[in-house]
Amino acid sequence: MEPEDIDRITRILAPRLHMLAALARTEHVTRAAEILGMPQPTLSRAIARLQEETGLTLVERTGRGVRLTRTGRLLLPHVERALADLARGVGELTDADHGRVTLTFLPTLGVEVVPALLRGFRRTHPDVRFTLIQEAWAPSLRRLAEGGADLALTSPLPTDPRLVCTVLHTQALRLVVPEHHRLARTDREVALSEVAGEEFVLLKPGRGVRHLTDRLTDRAALTPEVAFEADDIATARGLVGAGLGVSVLPARPRGPLPTTAELPLADHDAVRPIGVIHPAAGSGGGYTPPAVTTFLEHVRRHGPRLIPDLTG
Q: For residue range 202-248, what is the model confidence (pLDDT) as tens digits?
């Protein structure tokens, strides 16, 4: 059979799958019609038309009842799987306890924050399934805006009107210098201009902290001399500790590394808001599955407590 013939028969079968399944279960046209909530003549005509249009004999009469032919029995497992898959899909869209959530998040939040949020949520919603995507700030926001994810945990927060943001925690940004740096013992706020001409360790473009650093250096009319570009905050901190440059990074909750010093910045906009983001109502598909809404509420409730303790 040619592919176009298979496609034609599939399109004819699709809206009648429940009819075949009901007939297989009851082996009786009237009882099947009652289950389906339709008049018995309507069901009989639909099955007759189905067989005529497909050229497949799927049902045969047996006295006062009906049964599937060998062709119908061979098709039945595929019909049942298709209906089960459709039911699962509908469940993911409509059932808060059996849905699916696609979450994109910063790699730094994947070490402790995301596992802690999932652990707490799964205690009360064990059947919700998750698709987890770790990625940098820029691709995470792009994925969310294009409908490839339900929620994002990231920083900084976007100004895109298609996205709604909830701040969960705000970290101070610090000038991080090696322990023997000339400013390491300073107990005052420092300006970025005080390290003009020094080598910087920055995160790679597309990372949220790099976006914030670029904004701060632009405000300070400073063009950093970039010595190294790191993939993540921990690596950048380690490179500073090795004496390979200075950096602007979120304050480490457990205190500076022994090989570094962290200095408050005079620019009071030197902060890193971390938040949960979701598409605005009416954007994308215009519908938020209940499981996504329930998890979003969980993140908003517990994120402000977890993130300060588990980031950095």
A: 999 999 999 999 999 999 999 999 999 999 999 999 999 999 999 99
| Average confidence score pLDDT of the chain | 88
CATH number (domain holding residue 281): 3.40.190.290
DSSP string, 108-151: GGGTTHHHHHHHHHHHH-TT-EEEEEE--HHHHHHHHHTTS-SE
The token pair that represents 151 in the structure block: 């929620």
Q: Which domain holds residue 56?
A: 3-94
Q: What is the DSSP letter of 64?
A: T
Same domain, 84 and 155: no
59 lies in the same domain as 112: no
- Render pLDDT for 55-64 as a digit per residue (tens, 0 to 9): 888 888 887 7
